[in-house]
Design brief:
43% of the residues lie in helices and 18% in strands. Helix 1 crosses helix 2 (66-84). By secondary structure, it is an alpha+beta fold.
Length: 139
């Protein structure tokens, strides 16, 4: 039997970093992502974000590669949002993503950080290490 104790911090943004994650989209998107993580065999610990990107803290099944897992989450979540919400433009994710493994000693701080994403961005108190994967994604 295969086993993993890896926790991942996954970050991805909307197409061209457009502010597509409105309150109504967020209210649908976060539960959809949580469900999709479970459906794929993973464990979701936190999801949060702002209008243009999300942070997801989760474990994925050992049989999945990060690219397979993230591709599934992005494709299925955008499809479900587009089928269930009327929007001015289709909801789409950017092609790339960032992913970090989480040091178990940082997990509590990271979960709090993800839960307070809007506050950190409003106050400009983001943590560069946890936002850095976004810097490597050009729109």
């Amino acid at each position: 039997m295969s086993f993993s104790r890896l926790i991942y911090h996954v970050i991805f943004h909307t197409l061209d970093k457009r502010p597509l994650i409105t309150e109504s989209v967020e209210a649908r998107l976060y539960p959809i992502l949580s469900h999709l993580v479970l459906e794929y065999g993973g464990v979701q610990l936190a999801v949060g974000g702002v209008e243009s990107h999300i942070h997801l803290v989760c474990a994925m099944p050992v049989t999945a590669t990060p690219s397979q897992f993230v591709r599934y989450l992005k494709s299925a979540s955008s499809g479900r949002i587009n089928r269930t919400l009327s929007m001015k433009e289709p909801f789409r994710w950017h092609a790339g993503y960032g992913i970090l493994t989480v040091n178990p000693h940082d997990l509590t701080r990271l979960l709090q950080y993800v839960a307070k994403q809007k506050e950190h961005h409003d106050r400009r108190t983001t943590t560069p290490h946890w936002e850095a994967p976004l810097a490597n994604q050009s729109p």
